Amino acid sequence: MEKKANNKKEDQIENDWSFTKKNYLLFFLSLIIIIFGYMLMYFGGVDGFLSLKLSSVFLIFGYCVMIPLSILYKN
């Protein structure tokens, strides 16, 4: 009886970590945002607004908000 309870708990843990289509979509969107941030950094001037401020916002948003959101999102 105890083994069945343990198996149910293990199955539930495995099901809790499965990613859905929305998780992959959010992760892909975060990669696009991060790539866009690096492109802004590359094309902006050395002391320009694009490379110093705007690209930083996109990179921080992509790395610190979107990727964790794509990992932790549940239906």
Please give the radius of gyration in angstroms: 19 Å
* Discrete helix count: 3
The helix/strand order is HHH
| Assembly context of the chains | single chain
Uncertain residue segments: none
The count of β-strands is 0
Describe what this molecule looks like in 3D.
With 75 residues, the chain is mostly helical. It has one domain. The protein contains three helices and no strands. The chain has helices spanning 2-16, 21-43, 49-72. The longest helix is centred in the last third of the chain and has 24 residues, at 49-72. The two termini are 31 Å apart. The mean pLDDT is 87.
Features:
3 helices; 75 residues; mainly alpha; 0% strand
Break the fold down into its secondary structure elements and pairings.
Layout: H1 2-16, H2 21-43, H3 49-72
Short description, anyone?
With 75 residues, the protein is an all-alpha fold. The chain has helices at 2-16, 21-43, 49-72.
